[in-house]
Amino acid sequence: METKTPKSAETRARIQNVAVELFARNGYRGTTMRSIAAASGLSLGNAYYYFPSKEALVRDLARGLVDEQVRAARPRLRSGNNLRDNIQVVFDAALDALAPFHECGTVLLRAAIGNDEASDVSRAKEFALWRQAVAASLPQPPAAIRGDLPELLWLVQRGLVIFWAYDGSPDAERSRRLAANAASLMARLAVLSRLPVVRHIVDDVIGVVRNVESDRPKMGS
Amino acid sequence: METKTPKSAETRARIQNVAVELFARNGYRGTTMRSIAAASGLSLGNAYYYFPSKEALVRDLARGLVDEQVRAARPRLRSGNNLRDNIQVVFDAALDALAPFHECGTVLLRAAIGNDEASDVSRAKEFALWRQAVAASLPQPPAAIRGDLPELLWLVQRGLVIFWAYDGSPDAERSRRLAANAASLMARLAVLSRLPVVRHIVDDVIGVVRNVESDRPKMGS
DNA sequence: ACAGGTTTTTAAACTTGTTCAAAACCGGAT
DNA sequence: ATCCGGTTTTGAACAAGTTTAAAAACCTGT
Questions:
Q1: CATH superfamily of the domain spanning A1-51
Q2: CA pair distance A181, A177, nearest whole angstrom
Q3: Which of B212, B213, B214, B215 to probe the A interface (max A CBs under 10 A)?
Q4: How far is B15 from chain A, CA to nearest CA, in Å?
Q5: Nearest chain A Cα to B207, which residue?
Q6: What is the pLDDT of residue B128?
Q7: pLDDT exceeds cutoff 80 at B171
């Protein structure tokens, strides 16, 4: 169902390129399907032949953002940063990748939160990134929490993205500030999780999240 | 700028009543401005004379939800429940009030998160409710956290509402589950906050939130 | 009662996302 | 060359949010 024809794939790609350009320049509302079609040298209906809706179009574009985040973050995780810095790196990479799409905030959220196959893939990629961020930090966080930390950080990132989506401050500076503060906080929390009380609380939080998040109907009939 | 004429106010109210009816019956997408106007016995343009947009209309309706939540919750807080139960009461009241508007999720969020004068009022009402929920619980939470607990709970509620907005499960049962779990968790956390470590973490979280949330440009040029 | 202004109402347009039936195109089998 | 089935493209239409110019209704002071 992917590429019927080489030309078809090329046209599809052209639409996406034009779209990302126009979205970045004129925002989500400011970019009309008609303008995308026109700038791609196609008729309106033709764009709809390739993408069933405007939302689907940006959703497809959003898929690429995760890869961009990973590309930007991974090289900066190599060295033995401390945990706080590594968290910050990943946060920054996320906000950088999202920046051009600020106006599509809620559409992106539906894409990110949605539970179809494609977002499972994205989730997996982000998870891997967080695992690496934790693994690459010196000193290593306490063993007790090392396993759950990536999940926890991934969760905090999701919160950050939601905040960003509704953040109206210029250049999303409030989101930047939140990212910096949250990075410090989480690093400190990781250290403290050596204490059983703290550890229990973290466990509870993770438990709540798992319980609520987990009953997504997996593939099958 | 509020009510130019008694009749004007009456018409405005009629639109709102009809709208809440139609939204509840046919959902957000299923309710058109034209249908609202028609059911109100007005012309389309006339509805727009009273409300600058469909979003603004539901935003205004959303304002009333806070009052409904308070009305529903307050009587059930009277007795000396324990903290967990009181938290649950307020959560449930929120989800009950929101229920008919599930389809307007993101629109409501923009309204709730937006930082204009009107949402300041709503915030204040919710805050008062949470203060009462804490004050009415037996045993009282540790003095150290009693002051900040309402703010913290308010924050968790906001998270719950965001989750609800994107919750596609039937009858928002996942949100209900989250509410129950979060209520337990927060109650336990309150008790634990007697311990200095926990208290410090809570302080940090509140600090982050305050720092990020507080620089809303208040009135004045 | 009436002129002058303000508020309310209307009808018609405009915009933009989306759909659809018909046409144009293309590569292979006859 | 011609027909065929599938793919791509088009142009027109529709639906619903939004805007607007002008008419109608209303008020108020004379």
A1: Homeodomain-like (1.10.10.60)
A2: 6
A3: B212
A4: 27
A5: A181
A6: 94
A7: yes
